[in-house]
# Entry
Amino acid sequence: MPAATAATLPIRTLSSLTGVNAVTLRAWERRYGLIRPARTPKGHRLYTHQHVERIRRVLALVERGVPISRVRDLLDVEPAAESPAAGDRWLQDIERMAAAIARFDEQDLDRIYDESLSVHPVEQVTRRLLLPLLVRLGERWSDLAGGIAEEHFFAMYLRSKLGARMQHRMRYATGPRLVAACAPGEQHEIGLLLFALEAHVAGMRTVLLGADTPLADVAIACRRSQGDAVVISSSMDPAPSFFRDELPQLVRESGVPVFVGGSTALRHRREIAAAGAVALGVELEDGVRLVATTLAREAPRP
# Structure
């Protein structure tokens, strides 16, 4: 895979995003030619988001039992491109759902969502329909009259839909239990709900606390539920006390790994690390994988 021109991610970031340690990444490069990073004048490796996606494909193949020595042959067979008609259908459904939200029409919203689920797996509907829809809506909610009402309406709808699906998955999930909440003052919980669904797809269980949750209460919920990790969602710039006092206290009192996701994690990665927590970023699949690999490393050996 040739390196793209926009190579800006150092190896530690690639490792953080994929959950694969730097030693393994270098071995995959030298022994198997799975990735080909660009180099700085001093020889440091730089990667792109295309490399992140390629490593995710490698991990998916390995998890299916493919020997690492055979992975490159399968990677080099590019998947069939989605037909233009299929891509147009996703765009049409995004527009139809946005229009239904603008009319506060739950029945029409339900019909479009169920139509997509009838022909696509829920993971694909989340990534191809719900996430682009959120981007589409986010572009107008900040300036649109009634935008807050639209967001609350869609959040309530999504909570009911995802809640039903997560309840069904909970019957079979046996993985780590995540206590998930929005940071204090954070009212936007849609991203948290989508993360919870992605975590359930990966076999994890979640205790959802919702919007604007004091971190002291999150610690209590984690102890009482015997949670294995805490995930905090935040899209805003928290008060200085969040990084200085509240987040370090949550890390101490919960006694489990604490993760911070959302755009706050992109802007304040250093402050989050200094507080003893782990920054997840905004990519759902990468975030869930990082949580899983972190917990696997900290699990006691048999």
